[in-house]
Amino acid sequence: MSGIRVPTYDQPQVQERALPTVRVSTDAPIEAFGGGESAAGLQRAAGQVLDGASKILLEEKQKADDTATQKAYSELVNRKNDLLYNKDKGVMTRKGEAAFSAPDEYLPQFDKHAEDISKNILKNETQRAMFEMMKLRERTEFDGQITKHVFTESERFSEETKKATVAATMNDAILNYQVPGKVEQAIADQRAVILSKSQGKPKELVDLEIAEAAGQTHAGVVARMLANGQDMAAHAYYYGDEKKGIKGKKDEVPGTIAVQLEKQLEDGTLRGESQRVTDSLIAKYGNPAAAIKHVPKDDPKLRDAITARLRDEISLREIAERERDENIMVKFGNEIDKTGSVDSLMGTREWAVLEPSRKASLMAYAKNKREGIEPAPNGERYYFLRTLAASPGTDQQKFRDMNLRDYITEMPKDEMAKLIDIQTSIRKGDGKAEQDLDDFRTKQAIVFNRMRSVGIDPDPKEGDEESQQTAREFYSALAREAKSFRERTGKPATKDELGQLADDLLVEGITERGSLLKFFTGQSGSPFSTKKRRFQVEETENFEVDSVDQIPKSQVSAIKDSLRRQKVEITDDRILQMFRERQARRMTSAN
Description:
This protein has 591 residues and is mainly alpha-helical. It has 21 helices and two strands. It has helices at 36-47, 52-85, 102-120, 125-175, 182-196, 203-227, 231-239, 255-285, 288-291, 300-339, 349-353, 356-371, 379-390, 394-401, 413-428, 434-453, 465-489, 495-506, 516-520, 553-565, 572-590, and strands at 508-512, 530-533. The chain has a two-stranded antiparallel sheet. Helix 7 (231-239) runs antiparallel to helix 8 and helix 16 (434-453) packs parallel to helix 18 (495-506). Among the domains are: 1-197, no CATH class; 336-470, no CATH class; 545-591, no CATH class. It is elongated and about 165 Å long.
């Protein structure tokens, strides 16, 4: 046991309880010490021989002795209780090793208090004799209370010392498990300490405590090995390795500890083995994308772990390549802004790693710069990318991972900057784009409802080319109108204003009137009128609305509300008239 240091603790390891509030009666048992009725009996005997005056004097003296003794006893009890329970310096505040000296310190204090009380309160030998008997009884009780407290604290101190010593040896073994014999010596020391502090305890409990300490030590060593990346050594330490002559520690670990330890060991071994196989596959096949096709399939858990690692590696490499290409595109874009040429870029190593499509985009961007051409607003592309960004799950991940600089020739700088800000926020996960995305989702829902109300599918299925084309044309037109509104008013359209813009674009009108007479006389190509939505009308085409049915329901409802407020009779003609007036005002304002 030499060399074992007993650590100290800032706080006790055994639960402390508040000091009890002890109420001790301070009424002196006068009869037990020669006063009260005992004295009265003597008085009655003496009264037979004494005259009346002597009898009165004897009674008064007895009362005086009783009163003085009662007062002295009360004071002694109060001082005894203060010595025991004073919250700052009483016996009961002494904890652990500090309690051991209590008898030598507090019994003399009790004796000194008793001496002071006898000297200052009691006046004659009768009183002192009675008080002495009281003091002896209280001192015996006081001594017993101190002895009991010291014994309790001694047991506590012994238990804390044992636990601290076991913990210290366990920690030493875990930290220094690579030192030959360290673990074995620590377990031997634990056994010796536990045995030395367990006198009187059942053997079964002592053996269990020794086994638990050894098991926790082995578990700590295994965990330490796994943390250090030594999963194979941890496996051999616990299960043994016949080839290396290593005897495992499994039999020394109790079942309650073994269950959790073996699960931890299984997970750690799987991590280590999957990493080793992953590294060897990448080294053999050159990259994780090729290696993933050759993952061993014998062990399902190992197969899944290796596959997961290879996918993580692929993802990390893709992210690194994406960031590299984005940085190159930004750098080259800035250079083209200054020079209008890619000539100085084409011979660089950075240019060589770019995909051909990105090289083509940069060359087209440089050509536009030289010719002074700025990309026109691309409502279809912009709206598509905004929709991806606002859609949870896979769509937003696609937006997060794409290189937006690929569209430098397709969108104006303000649209590109907006999309890059949103993408950056999504990648960082800082939530800064959420308000913008929520606002877009709200506006998108309004637009979708408007489209559905006139029979246009806002999200056509793949393969429905006609519906997809219609939706794209509408989104492009709406984006142009929203941009024009922002330029005209200096602020983006609110959700209600965007709904109004959508309504205007969804109005159906006649672009060419049909005529049966002209058709049969060969003057017209069709007997039927040609109808289109406003967003589908070319600049050279006429556009006339001559039926309430051609106006979006939301606008018809708004016009009816206005007519009701004016207390005007609601007719189709008045609805058409007011609609045309509003359209004329809006067109004038737009121009």
